[in-house]
UniProtKB/TrEMBL annotation:
Annotated EC: 3.6.4.13
Upper taxonomic lineage: Eukaryota, Fungi, Dikarya, Ascomycota, Saccharomycotina
Domain (DEAD-box RNA helicase Q): residue spans on this chain: 42-70
Domain Helicase ATP-binding: 73-247
Name of the featured protein: ATP-dependent RNA helicase
Length: 775
């Protein structure tokens, strides 16, 4: 029976595998016969794609095709390289994710085949969004997907990257895993996808992307998608695109020739002419009059975003405020994206890190406070609203020096925003409030200085000098508009150094480290002198970098004083310097010392041997190079140890010393125990004596201070008290004398009996005899 069941299961698996192979062959036939030009496809089910992908799309509420999806997906399914371009919000993400899933499905891809598709995104936020969309539409498939971006745990990613079929990430982190991850196999890669390809191919990611592409197999399919596509032959040759199909790029050119705009038709675009020093006043007034809207405010640098966000929080415009820029931790960036996506009435201050590809639902306004560097950046920014045919509005603030030049650039792409005039009744100045806030909060003043410097530098490095005129900037007026008392001094570097800094910012850390190695895998400074090599290879901590910078915090003057003091100390030739010389001690000013009262404590305090007896044998300590103390045997060399004798002899010697110390301590402990025992016995006898006296006094009615002096002795009360305190032996004799004569007091009291103190000397005996003869 078991064999029959096993055969039936085997036959079922074979039949199922055969049906899948037949279905895949049928699917490939449909793809070859499909002609997108003669097709009237409207829904995803009209395309030649698998049932698993269709079910995933339906469950994710993707039913109807967009123009870029309708034109590009059939071409990608046929195996051609694709260069795709379409307006923002037109569904480019599905245009490359569906071909990726279909390619791996038709190849019967499993986890043992390695990495099948690599998707590269220029920003972390866009990579996260692509990954989330892939999880939704690929829920019915058996492929594994992974996300690798900066700010995440590299070790966690490396342990799982070997089992990934579809990998999504940013260029820097992908290159890092290619250099470090052992299990990452790229030999069987089927597809390479570049989302926002023009950004991935620019100078910032050039070296990183070249290093990635050089490690990929040439026989692969490549898909490039963006809203503003680059068709540079050099860029395409770097990616091995020779026989490719352009989708959407020619359509955009035709639309431009016929007068159509490169932006969505449902987008209402406008601009206002604002002097640089009035931008923050205008922005605050705009927010106050649009409290029921969801808006994104774009600024040119992260320092400006941080400053405007913190100051507007103090001013409380009456709407929820958020900020997002590239210098934040990844966790904070992800949380901000999630909160902004779910909010309805909110204002987000952001840099261009969210200008590309991010799908924010129901954004009402996109406000560009700072002019973008080019028209492509403008198109990507305004594309965050009016997505998928919905309504949206955009506003850009242009200074008088930027207005003519940038409007001319927009007109070349058939973009003609309408000019708006600000109503003076709605305008409000916040300059006095900003000055007050910065005066009270030094940290905000520091942020204001950084924001000012970053904006001026951003204008200086712009390539389009017809739009961005650095020499005509009203720096003093702009500084006053930020609440600063004056314009901070700025040190402008050369253009070449700025370009190198820009490339270094986007370059991979691992690639930079490898570039510093020579052919033998050693640092380049290996041939230099020892001092120079040590100086160049010295590890610089964040504190070293902090002290090297000026104006690094609000306490910059304090830090400069510290570094100045350190410099003065370094200039001193002496190895050790005396910082204080008034070390004379005045005995009258010293506190009183507590002298031990007991003889045993005094002896232990004055005797070195007695003080060390309870601590065992003294141990000699030796300090190492780092200043740490160790017992001498820890740092003792092998030769020194052998010279002292055999290990057994040293052990016996050590035990003998410890035994001697313990014997001395035992003698002292026995003496202490004996004294304690005697003291305890004395106290017990004293208590017994008092009890006998109390019983006798109660029986014969004697008061505590009896009138009969002969009962107590020959002396008075004060003499007896002194004798008790000064002579313990006398007290013991009296107690024993009375205890021996207790039998004399049994029965009735006899008046003829006279009690006298026991004579101790010859004089006492003669006195007693005289008294008895006299009586």
């Amino acid at each position: 029976m078991a064999k029959k069941e096993q055969k039936s299961k085997t036959s079922q698996r074979k039949e199922q595998r055969k049906r899948e192979q037949d279905y895949i062959r049928e699917l490939e036939t449909r793809i070859e016969e499909y002609n997108p030009k003669n097709s009237n496809a409207v829904f995803f089910k009209d395309l030649p794609i698998s049932n698993a992908t269709l079910r995933g799309l339906k469950e994710a509420s993707f039913v109807k095709l967009t123009e870029i999806q309708k034109n590009s997906i059939p071409i990608s399914l046929k195996g051609y390289d694709v260069l795709g371009a379409a307006k923002t919000g037109s569904g480019k993400t599905l245009a490359f994710l569906i071909p990726v899933l279909e390619k791996l499905y038709r190849e019967n891809w499993t986890e043992f085949d390695g990495l099948g598709a690599l998707i590269i995104s220029p920003t972390r936020e866009l990579a996260i969004q692509i990954y989330e969309v892939l999880l939704k539409i690929g829920s019915r498939t058996s492929f594994s997907a992974g996300l690798v971006i900066g700010g995440k745990d590299v070790k966690f990613e490396s342990e799982r990257i070997s089992r990934i079929n579809i990998l999504i990430g940013t260029p820097g982190r992908i290159l890092q895993h290619m250099d470090q991850a052992v299990g990452l196999n790229l030999n069987n890669l089927q597809m390479l996808v570049l989302d926002e390809a023009d950004r991935c191919l620019d100078m910032g990611f050039k070296k990183t992307l070249d290093a990635i592409v050089n490690n990929l197999p040439i026989s692969r399919q490549t898909l490039l998608f963006s809203a503003t596509q680059s068709q540079s032959l050099d860029d395409l040759a770097r990616l091995s695109l020779t026989d490719y199909k352009s989708i959407g790029t020619l359509d955009i050119v035709k639309e431009n020739e016929t007068g159509a705009s490169a932006t969505p038709e449902t987008l209402q675009q406008s601009y206002i002419d604002v002097p640089l020093q009035d931008k923050l006043d205008t922005l605050f007034s705009f927010i106050k009059t649009h409290l029921k809207n969801k808006m994104i405010i774009f600024l040119s640098s992260s320092k400006q975003v941080h400053f405007v966000y913190e100051t507007f929080r103090k001013l409380q415009p009456g709407i929820s405020l958020m900020h997002l820029h590239g210098r934040q931790k990844q966790k904070a960036r992800t949380e901000t994206l999630d909160k902004f996506s779910r909010a309805q009435q909110v204002c987000l201050f952001a840099t261009d890190v969210v200008a590309r590809g991010i799908d924010f639902p129901s954004v009402d306004w996109v406000v560009q406070v700072d002019c973008p560097e080019d028209v492509d950046t403008y198109i990507h920014r305004v594309g965050r609203c009016a997505r998928y045919g919905k309504q949206g509005k955009s506003l850009i603030m242009l200074t008088p020096t930027e207005e003519a030049g940038f409007l001319k650039r927009l007109a070349s792409k058939k973009i003609e925003p309408k000019k708006l005039v600000i109503k003076q009744s709605k305008k409000r100045s916040i300059k006095p409030q900003l000055q007050s806030i910065l005066f009270q909060d030094p940290e905000l003043k520091y942020l204001g200085q950084k924001a000012f410097i970053s904006y001026v530098k951003s204008i200086y490095i712009q390539k389009d000098k017809e739009v961005f005129k650095f020499d005509e900037l009203p720096v003093e007026e702009y500084a006053n508009s930020l609440g600063l008392p004056g314009a901070p001094k700025i040190k402008i570097k050369g253009m070449k150094s700025i370009e190198r800094a820009k490339q270094k910012k986007n370059a991979s850390r691992s690639l930079m480290a490898l570039s510093k190695m020579n052919e033998d895998g050693e640092p380049e400074n290996i041939d230099k002198s020892t001092d120079e090599a040590k100086q160049e290879t010295k590890v610089r901590t964040k504190y070293d970098k902090m002290f090297e910078r000026k104006n690094q915090t609000i306490l910059s003057e304090h830090y400069l004083n510290i570094t100045k003091q350190q410099a003065n100390d370094d200039e001193d030739d002496d190895f050790m310097t005396i910082k204080r010389q008034d070390h004379k001690l005045v005995e009258e000013e010293l506190p009183d010392l507590i002298v031990p009262t007991s003889k045993r404590s005094q002896k232990k305090a004055l005797s070195k041997k007695a003080s060390l007896s309870s601590k065992g044998n003294a141990t000699k300590m030796v300090f190492d190079d780092d200043g740490q103390a160790h017992p001498i045997y820890e740092l003792e060399g092998e030769e020194e140890f052998i010279n002292k004798g055999s290990a057994e002899d040293q052990k016996k010697e050590f035990l003998a010393k410890e035994t001697e110390v313990m014997n001395e301590v035992d003698i002292e402990d026995k003496q202490v125990a004996k004294e304690k025992k005697q003291e305890k016995k004395r106290k017990r006898l004293e208590m017994l004596r008092k009890e006998i006296e109390d019983e006798y006094a109660e029986e014969y009615g004697i008061n505590e201070e009896p009138e009969n002096e002969a009962f107590l002795g020959t002396g008075n009360l004060s003499d007896d008290m002194e004798s008790d305190s000064d002579d313990d032996s006398r007290t013991k004799k009296e107690v024993s004398y009375k205890r021996n004569n207790e039998s004399d007091y049994e029965g009735e009291y006899d008046d003829n009996i006279i009690e006298m103190e026991e004579p101790n000397t010859l004089e006492d005996l003669e006195s007693l005899t005289a008294k008895l003869i006299g009586n």
